[in-house]
Design goal:
With 228 residues, the protein is of the alpha+beta class. The protein has 6 helices and 11 strands. A hairpin with a 2-residue loop joins β7 and β8. The protein is elongated. 31% of the residues are buried. The N terminus is likely disordered.
Amino acid sequence: MYCYSAVTRQVSTHIVTVTVLTMPGRKFSPRGIVSTVRNVAACSVCGAAVAADQRFCGACGAPIARSTGDGQRQERKIVSVVFADLVGFTARSERLDVEDVQSLLAGYHRAVRAVLERFGGTVEKFIGDAVVAVFGAPVTHEDDAERAVRAALATVQAVREIDADLHVRVGVNTGEALIDLGAVASRTEGMASGDVVNTAARLQANAPVDGVLVGEPTYAATERHVVY
């Protein structure tokens, strides 16, 4: 004869209830179930249980956020990345006073940030005279790819208005990225990682001066709305 008992145990951030089958009179320790339930998570949208290797919830289809070993919560999302870089700025800065360089960069960063955020993007980081922005994280819109392209075009115009001698190249690419949900946008902490970011940088390097070069996925998502 066997007895059924429900054991509720909190493992990491998840509370798991397990039904255990035991012999009468024998004590059962829930420690033995830790290895079994440690890889069980819950969908943050609908609460359904998901396995360790699931990327999307089987109940509602939402992407599954994962925690890394250092406590970071990460999630796979389709995003559009805008990578903008000034042309010939390094050579120009060598001829300017350091305070003039700093002032010029500060104005450039402010203007480009305003443009990218106006179209719904998140400025991920500034790398000297380069700017990286993400559309589709942390806030998602159904037209993120189009927003990214229009923001890229507006960035070219904004740079012209800052200084007639400033020139920029912009690359835009769309694809899957691993998003750090704990990144703080106001601190321009790195948010997105993956080949989509690297490809956006390569597209920028090959874009015409004062022009925008987009990747094939971005083109496919925007060709009906943007004239190329």
